[in-house]
TrEMBL record:
This is Beta-phosphoglucomutase. The keyword Metal-binding applies. It is an enzyme of class 5 (isomerase). It comes from Isoptericola dokdonensis DS-3. Coiled coil: none annotated. Its cofactor is Mg(2+). The keyword Hydrolase applies. It comes from the Bacteria. One of its GO terms (molecular function) is hydrolase activity, acting on glycosyl bonds.
Length: 245
């Protein structure tokens, strides 16, 4: 089998610890909102119970429902504010993008070392993420110039591409790089992401265990699992044995 020629990286949890920034942004949105409206205070447990893993507007609606608040849904075009679910969601987007711009975000050092290794070996690289904040995150992390192709939530919406666990966004990234899926590596930390890699027939699916669990990642499609990408080098482009690191 020919060598692997491309590495397709998920963003949140693979290249950057973005979830921590999003958690703080939700707190900055809902802590003052709850206080201003006489609601039960917002706590970190609300993030995991009502917001984590959901599309932004659904997270807003679920949190509000937990406090007995029923706002109109509105539309994605609503100005950031408090009149609709979408307006609140857009306010959160405004907050998190300001945080990325003002505070920045440090990428995982091990991920940068792995990125350096595979690009030095001649591999094409892309980012594949469901987040619409991907351009802001990559810029804040100082990584925007490192990737030839970015397929994010904005691209998926514009081109009507199905999201993970469907393989379509990863397939699209490989197409844009001009590399067959069988010669591309998918790097993911989420179950839905390794499922996408397995479903797409990619040459190698690397799981990064940031808390999901190595066994769960393998069970859903990862060929190999590491705790940090710094454990790997460009040898993954030629080795096909998979297995646990």
């Amino acid at each position: 089998m020919s060598d692997l020629r491309a590495v397709l990286f998920d963003l949140d949890g693979v290249l950057t610890p973005t979830a921590e920034v999003h958690m703080r942004a939700w707190e900055r949105l809902f802590a003052p909102y709850a206080q201003a409206h006489g609601l039960e205070p917002y706590t970190a447990s609300d993030y995991f119970a009502h917001i984590d893993g959901k599309p932004r507007y659904d997270g807003v609606a679920t949190f509000l429902a937990s406090r007995g608040v029923d706002l109109p849904r509105g539309t994605a075009a609503d100005a950031p504010g408090e009149d609709t679910v979408c307006a609140l969601g857009n306010r959160k987007d405004e907050i998190v993008n300001r945080m990325f711009d003002q505070e920045g975000i440090d990428p995982y050092p091990g991920s940068v070392r792995f990125l350096d290794a595979v690009t030095a070996a001649g591999a094409h690289v892309a980012v594949v993420s469901s987040s619409r904040n991907t351009p802001a995150v990559l810029a804040a992390a100082g990584l925007a110039h490192r990737f030839e192709v970015v397929v994010d939530g904005n691209v998926a919406a514009r081109e009507h591409i199905a999201g993970k666990p469907a393989p379509d966004t990863y397939v699209r990234a490989a197409e844009l790089l001009g590399v067959p899926v069988a010669q591309a590596v998918v790097v993911e930390d989420a179950i839905s992401g390794v499922q996408a890699g397995a479903a797409g027939g990619f040459g190698l699916v690397l799981g990064v265990d940031r808390g999901v669990g190595a066994d769960a990642l393998r069970a859903h499609g990862a060929d190999r699992v590491v705790a940090d990408l710094g454990e790997l080098d460009a040898a993954v482009l030629t080795r096909r044995d998979g297995g646990a690191a």
